[in-house]
Amino acid sequence: MPVALTVPGLLVLALVGAAAARLAVTRIVVYGGSLVFCAGLLAAGVNALTAPVAHLVLPIGLPWIGLQLRVDALAGFFLALIGLGGAGASLFALGYARHEHHPERVLPFYPAFLAGMALVVIADDAFSFLFAWELMSLTSWALVLAHHKEAGNTGAGFVYLIMATFSGMALLLAFGLLAGPQGAYAFDAMRAHPPTTAIAATVLVVTLIGAGSKAGLVPLHVWLPQAHPAAPSHVSALMSGVMTKVAIYGFIRIVFDLLGPTEWWSGTVVLALGGATAVLGVLHAVMERDLKRLLAYSTVENIGIVFIGLGLALAFRANGFTAGAALALTAALFHALNHTLFKSLLFFGAGAVLDATGQRDMETLGGLIHRMPRTAVAVLVGCAAIAALPPLNGFASEWLTFQAVLLHPDLPQWGLKLMIPVDGAALALAAALAASCFVRAYGICFLGRPRSQAAAQAREADFWSVAAMAGFAGLCLLTGVFPGAVIDTLAPVVQTLTTARMPVQLSNTWLTIAPVAASRSSYNGLLVFGFIAVSMILTLLAVSRLSTRGVRRAPPWDCGFPDPTPLSQYSAGSFAQPIRRVFATVLFRAKDTVTMPPPGDSRPATITHHITDPVWDGVYAPLGRAVLWIAEKANVLQFLTIRRYLGFVFGALVVLLMALTIWQ
Amino acid sequence: MPFISPHGLSFDIAHSLAGLLVLVSFMMLYQVRLLALLHVLALHAFVLALSVAWQAHIQDAPHLYITAAIALLFKALLIPWALRRMVFQMGLHREIETVGGIGLTMLAGIALVALSLEVMLPVTANADPVAREDIALALSVVLIGLLVMVTRRNAISQVVGFMSLENGINLAATGARGMPLVVEISVAFSILIAFIVVGIFLFRIRERFDTVDVAALDQSRGGEA
Prior knowledge:
- The structure holds two protein chains of two kinds.
- Chain A has 24 helices and four strands.
- Chain A is mainly α.
- Among the domains of chain A are: 202 residues, no CATH class; 31 residues, no CATH class; 49 residues.
- Chain B is mostly helical.
- In chain B, helix 2 runs parallel beside helix 6 and helix 5 runs antiparallel to helix 6.
- Chains A and B meet through helix 24 of A and helix 4, helix 5 and helix 8 of B.
- Chain A: Pfam families: Proton_antipo_M.
């Protein structure tokens, strides 16, 4: 299994990074080496989709199990995803990381982070899985704290560390339950002995907590919008684009593979959480003014969409409707792939903007399309893709998810019959809000006039960064125009998990995709692309033919403002105001306060808006207060007399012995 | 190894020696004078040495004689003698310690013995009868040793409680067959080192606070006495 060699290879790169972080050549070695290894992961992953299952046992790890590795189709798909995202991030970093002030805080952890993610995917026993999971968490935590002196970053790292520990603990519990009393920690043994119904339900809930908190499922998402933006941008791209997918892998591996058959209600739970995540995430995103935080909230939304697909797959599978399960699971995996593509691209774009202007606050950007034209085009493709505009890839996977939603009348349970349309509505709402969110993000950052000196003097990003962005933009277009190829590639993964697959798509005429039957609904990305391209060319031709040739130079129409300043444009806050008024007044308790200076005062009037996060205020703040209260009460124990301590030891011993007596 | 019948004389002697140890533990519970307490400690260790020697005899395990010798030499003679010197050096030999109601403490001790029998006898139902009784009695010695530590205020009496607790552990260890000598020697040495450390600390405490009443320590930490 040559793919196992990439893990030690990446760890060696981490050591190189730790040994000589200050040298410029180390940066090239580490990122170039990561690029090569990620390309290897991508190739091995794609190869594993069709190859027979490979198994390898190394004599390290737990003594009686060893380190078990296994690459099947599912692992292959996610390996390819890690390879793709990692290769893109490494390519981007070749140029972007040139301006890193503290390379010694990034270089050692970056390859180790990649190695941890790859190891999670190929691990085949609980111990190796959890070890790799924690490696992934800890290295990414170190990367989040790379710029720990910036305001808010240490807090983000703290919250992330707590949530990562929590997620590891939850998964530990899940594996403990799956292993059963005989302690069978190898995944093969777990597959051979599916747990009883009650234990399976507990495992499902605990896995949802463990993997969900890593993926950013509401209400466990709070760390994500804090931690992802805090890291350097290529790491943000990896965390948002790839690490959340590894979390989804963990969920699929446990729930679809190890757990055996599940009850129908598990689909309802996953669907409810997925729908809430999609809507809450995008609502946050649409009101956010920090560009990288906006992207992180949008990650939360996309995770919600993926989980809607997974919930549908669970619901269909529990009812023996394997074709529907295959469709829903394909949609979820396809969307995971797409999200890796466009979210990495957008984080690269945000990194390029941050590098060029030093700003993440959208209110200080604007007009960058003139200063950074290549970045602007690539980011435009990414924004269109994430807003699910055809013919790009975001549309294809969301359309597939909708097709799966439309199959719900075939299900017998009323709980699902009611839940799935609600989720369909949530999905539609999220898609619409995402479109407005990225219109806003792109318009405020790249169009209009610069809102600050820094934005006015921005420079185009370097060659490597642009190459990474252009490559991902091209992939977004390719997977959008040829979705049938992706669906057919995913077939082996879906086949092993749902015992069914979607119909072969590439045999359809004109590359049309038809998820159930051509009579029901079909979509042709190529046709849409052709139509858009042709109509654009025709419009261009018409404009250039019919318009007058003469160029007339005149002052632009100033909308009645005698002194046009950039402040008179739409701002990020004003663009979001209608949505804030409609949705956030109740949910986020949004408040706008206008301060008017008294007559005669020359100060400008100000408008401030204030929103609260219901999840943070409702769940985390009380939890934090409770922990503090208990800690304060327990603090008394620090100041007791020696005799009291002895008394406690004695009392504990006696109580335990008495419990033992009664137990017998 | 010969099987020891639960109805033979050797069993009765082993059992009564272990019982004697529990009895001496009870003597510690109510002994309020420090010097007398040290004498009881010496007696405790002496009974332990006898018991271990008897185990060595009936189990046909000569290495246990070494354990018995260690117990006799260190625990019955050396440590009580050193503690006695300390008491004289500190001028504590006339000290009478207040123990919270003797009757209540004794009742608690009886309850502890009942508890340890109740715990141990069902658990060790299949074990060798000698080891079984020994372990139950040893657990009561340990628990009473802890009780002594909890009810005393004086650091020296707490040390005495600790030593008797350790004797209980030794009794259990020798009652069970096949316990290697290395374990016992290392336990004996760790106790010796603990004793040295405690002795040094006692003098340091004494130097600083002019008393070995642990309540003074608590006051210096700002806790309640």
